## 1
Amino acid sequence: MDESTPQIRIDTWLHALRESGYRLTPSLRAVVAVVAESHHALTPMQVLALAQAGDAEISRATVYRTLEKLVELRLVQTVHDASDCLRYVAGDADHQLLVICPQCGRSDAVQSERLMGLVNAIAADHGYRLKDRLLQIFGICPECQ
Amino acid sequence: MDESTPQIRIDTWLHALRESGYRLTPSLRAVVAVVAESHHALTPMQVLALAQAGDAEISRATVYRTLEKLVELRLVQTVHDASDCLRYVAGDADHQLLVICPQCGRSDAVQSERLMGLVNAIAADHGYRLKDRLLQIFGICPECQ
DNA sequence: GTGATTGCAAAGCGTTTGCACCGTA
DNA sequence: TACGGTGCAAACGCTTTGCAATCAC
């Protein structure tokens, strides 16, 4: 997350969106303002509520479609609740980095003291009391290459 | 992921489940067999299909309920597709570790060359061609403590 | 025997889609 | 003016739930 002021970030995002050929509509601006200014991970429904609270007239569908654009441009990233699950695989998330092949679904769980130590240190540095980890990387496995 | 044989892992899991007071029903055994033997991240529906293919008579609801138990006992962990999203937050997932407070939703994006280097090295060691990263840790933030 | 577990089917809920209208460029 | 974007509402699909029947212990 960069350290620019909210307004500068908003302008940067709008500029990037226009550069990519998107039209700067009021709905889009509203979503950008909400997400760019927030220091919180927001659900689409929360974005909708905040945008509407800020006077904007906007629909659910547009929120989803706009968030998609922001992700596409890498201005925004998605956060995954540890409790939310799409797939299940043997292993204990608290002590492993999971390497997953998005093509075939194969997964390898990797134990790495160094990695865990590093992650713990980062959390401590920022004053967070660590609860859960979600360390997963996605790559094409040897067989699918 | 431990290196034991499938059968031993199945027995270990069943033992742990019984220890926790769960009854070892045919449906539960079927789910355990499928997930413990697989080296793939499976969706609940895939688990269902595989269990049914293996002769078991089992319903969707039971698959969900059984997977919950396995996660609770930390025998299984959930995998999150990079494309699936619950919340959105400013930042670029490819270069950051996200620290999130599950209580208030606050998030801090951390850049760490060492962490990224370590992750890249691990992927390479295992023969994976890295595509996406999902490095997120959850901890109570200073203000919520 | 008895209380946990299951199957079924309905309900739930966030997300996606189709389409006519609107507004940016 | 043209066509990308929007709102609405219906459709969708995975997940959850209620309840009676079942079965592990």
Note: Helices of chain B lie at 6-19, 26-37, 44-53, 60-72, 113-125.
## 2
Amino acid sequence: MFRINQEFLKFIEDHFQHANDSVGIELVSFESNEILMEQDQIVRNVYLIKSGICKVYFEEENGKEYILEFLSTGEILGELEIIRDETCLCSVKSIIKVEAFKIPKNYFLKLLNGNLSLNKMIIHSFAERIINTSKKASHQKLYSIEYSLTKIMEMQKKNDFEISKSDLSAYLGISIRSLNRSLKSLKENPS
Amino acid sequence: MFRINQEFLKFIEDHFQHANDSVGIELVSFESNEILMEQDQIVRNVYLIKSGICKVYFEEENGKEYILEFLSTGEILGELEIIRDETCLCSVKSIIKVEAFKIPKNYFLKLLNGNLSLNKMIIHSFAERIINTSKKASHQKLYSIEYSLTKIMEMQKKNDFEISKSDLSAYLGISIRSLNRSLKSLKENPS
DNA sequence: TTTTCACTGGGACAAATGTCCTTGATTACA
DNA sequence: TGTAATCAAGGACATTTGTCCCAGTGAAAA
């Protein structure tokens, strides 16, 4: 999250500029709150974020939403489903204005089949996701909410950007009521 | 977890049989409760499990343990750290007798650099881990304990193998007291 | 056989979290 | 300007979960 992966971005920007039109890479943009990918739908493109921020979330059968991560510049979405040839595992929505390179499924697969350095980039981005997701899961089960909350608040400040309370609570996997309580307790007791 | 990845296993078994000795792949075995990888230590080898089951867990600073997943036949460990050139992110311990191929770091890196099909296998195994870890995190935050507990109990039965209560509670991220309560409630009300 | 020890399960209480609902503030609209 | 509608914050209570501890069981040692 909020890791700027220049390497990835450079790789695709080069392809965008030099590849011929038939390749089909486009630069597209989304306003705030637009859906880039919808859970259980068929994936036709990979997106690489050029600017802006998205949330990646599960819509659970009990109606609740769980935000896995936030994606920003240089991060990719849709690749996992295309690699596994599956429908979308989760939904992705812009939370501020987003610009992204849209890469058609077939071209992405073709690149993946012949290009070792793209494979390496995917491996590294997957590795980072595994670590983030694992640590988040552990922290959210074994530490107090305040612990994870402090971390994400610091990150917000550092990146000068604000996550809504409803997104914050979905990220932490708690109710807004509990989030309010924790925010209050952090304010009163800023350890 | 308990996914038998024959493809991976076949790949390494071929290398084990045909590569010359200098490659350094060895078949090693561990009794129950032996440590294969220790958090924060340097990783010198990748292991590919031939038989048996391991637990992969974080040892948190507050003394608690969180089990991320259980690994069995055809699953790999240590590769993520070697790829990222980092110390162990988590610890891995056998919970029953384990046989595994031990692959030296340098040989693994060499393969990774030239072999597209190994890259593909790593990508697929990472993808699966991302999905498992993400779903587990979401379920553990948004559903009752009984939900995850039922799932893992079914899996235990299907694979004819028993996880200790202390490992079960570390996998679910709850105390043994809560686990006992949930087990009792499942027995009284087997929905 | 008796005693001690270690371990497991569960009771009792405390703390954390969720649900429901009221209140107050802000916005939209007549 | 006044009224209705909407939304966020927090009170009150219920439920869940954790912590602490005790009793019962079984195993090991005297």
Note: Residues 2-115 of chain B form a domain with the Jelly Rolls fold (CATH 2.60.120.10).
